[in-house]
Write a structure and sequence with these properties.
The complex is a heterodimer of chains A (191) and B (231). By secondary structure, chain A is mainly alpha-helical. Helix content of chain A is 73%, strand content 1%. Chain A is built from 6 helices and 1 strand; from the N terminus they run αααααβα. Chain B is an alpha/beta fold and 231 residues long. The chains are: A mainly alpha (191), B alpha/beta (231).
Chain lengths: 191, 231
């Protein structure tokens, strides 16, 4: 069995990678509006994920779900209230995106994005509370305080950070799905 | 490299003469695309990166250190759970006595010995405790504290899975000079004093009875004021 330290580093690396991917995507998207080379690169990347967007997003949701279950059920970290709210928006994404990927149903985008946007908002708020505990009150609950970070890898990766990165990456993939649907089959686009 | 292969291994020249667009499907795809596109195997890259992350995580983390929790013993009646809202029913009750050890293994005892005592329960991962410790220490360094009142700290809720572990390094980093008793893995000491949060302050009179209990950060003026009221 892999130790908690190993899993913590693994999840942190994944979250870091996801964050890099999100930020690069946003930068590339911005650059592509003004630079032809960047636009070409954007299109090349979009093309390369075409057909896999939903599977990739499903994978992100599944890893996030299994990761959170590992933290609570195997590492015995008690989820705080805000953790639960993030779980509520992450767990359905596994089923929603999995079914959509299986049925090649791009219309899932709206459902998935709503779940992911709300999840992102909660995760960002949770992260802010961890960074500035005074936002949440003056003492720490013994059981499961939201302001106390169980994980604080490299001084910035905490559990809600991981959640935000997963939600964010799902959003990026949903944006990619929209672009690809619009680009590749203009006849079927009903948006 | 000494063994140079005489056979040219380059693949591209071999491929070139074969027109990739000769077969039906490929021809169609090429025809659709205005220019030859570089294929970026994003899915493959993702799987590779995830695998690399797992390998790196395994390689970079050896065996995690054992817990720093101690094996203190508690004697006497436990105090009722501390409720923030109601009047504290523990006031006037005799606190349990504790025999434990600090991080160096030296025995530290908390028992009625005539000296009023401020007991502070600290969790290494609790951000408020992390604020409280240097605040109190700098107060003590500046000649603060109340004559005849002792401060004893309990390192509780020790968990190697949580941040700012181990507590010994944290308290050493903060030059924390107050005696420390290590709580056990079940946080028996914290429970025995009815603790509901961190930091958790319990002020004891010289006869070992509870004068005040409070959770949360204490400002120094309040701390001094309460310590002055102890008998």
């Amino acid at each position: 069995m892999l130790s908690f330290d190993t899993m913590r580093l693994f999840f942190s690396l994944l979250a870091f990678g996801a964050t890099v991917a999100i930020i690069s995507s946003i930068l590339l998207w911005l650059a592509a509006r003004v630079n032809a080379g960047a636009a070409e690169m954007r299109d090349a990347i979009l093309e390369s994920v075409a057909g896999y967007e939903l599977w990739l997003a499903f994978g992100v949701a599944a890893v996030a779900t299994l990761g959170s279950l590992y933290l609570s059920e195997i590492a015995h970290l008690i989820p705080c209230k805000l953790c639960w709210f993030q779980r509520i928006f992450m767990y359905p994404l596994v089923i929603v995106l999995g079914v959509a990927a299986w049925r090649r149903d791009a219309s899932v985008r709206l459902t998935a994005m709503l779940l992911a946007w709300i999840g992102t908002a909660i995760a960002v708020y949770h992260y802010a509370i961890q960074r500035y505990p005074t936002l949440g009150g003056g003492s720490c609950d013994a059981s499961a305080p939201c302001s106390a970070a169980y994980i604080w890898q490299w001084d910035f990766v905490s559990i809600p950070f991981m959640a935000a990165s997963a939600f964010g990456l799902i959003l990026v993939l949903m944006f990619a799905l929209r672009s690809n649907v619009a680009r590749m089959s203009p006849l079927e686009t009903a948006e | 490299m000494s063994d140079r292969s005489p056979t040219p291994k380059r693949k591209k020249p071999a491929r070139k003469p074969v027109p990739a667009a000769a077969t039906g499907k490929a021809a169609q795809r090429v025809a659709e695309a205005p220019k030859p596109k570089r294929d970026i195997p994003v899915v493959g890259i993702v799987f590779t990166l995830v695998a690399l992350a797992l390998v790196a995580a395994v390689l970079l983390t050896g065996n995690s250190g054992g817990g720093e929790a101690g094996e203190p013993t508690v004697e006497g009646e436990w105090l009722p759970f501390y409720e923030r809202t109601d009047g504290d029913s523990a006031i006037g009750l005799a606190a349990p006595t504790i025999t434990g050890a600090d991080f160096d293994g030296n025995e530290v005892v908390l028992e009625p010995n005539g000296t009023p005592t401020a007991v502070v329960f600290l969790a290494h991962w609790c951000p408020h405790c992390q604020v409280e410790v240097p605040k109190v220490q700098s107060w003590l360094d500046a000649g603060g504290g109340v004559d005849g009142v002792e401060i004893i700290s309990i390192a509780t809720s020790i968990n190697s899975a949580r941040e700012n572990y181990p507590p010994s390094e944290w308290l050493e980093r903060e030059d924390w000079e107050t005696p420390v008793i290590r709580d056990d893995t079940g946080n028996t000491l914290h429970s025995a004093f009815g603790g509901g949060g961190f930091p958790f302050w319990v002020f004891l009179n010289g006869d070992g009875t509870v004068a005040v209990r409070t959770t949360g950060e204490l400002d120094l003026a309040t701390l001094e004021q309460v310590m002055l009221t102890l008998e």
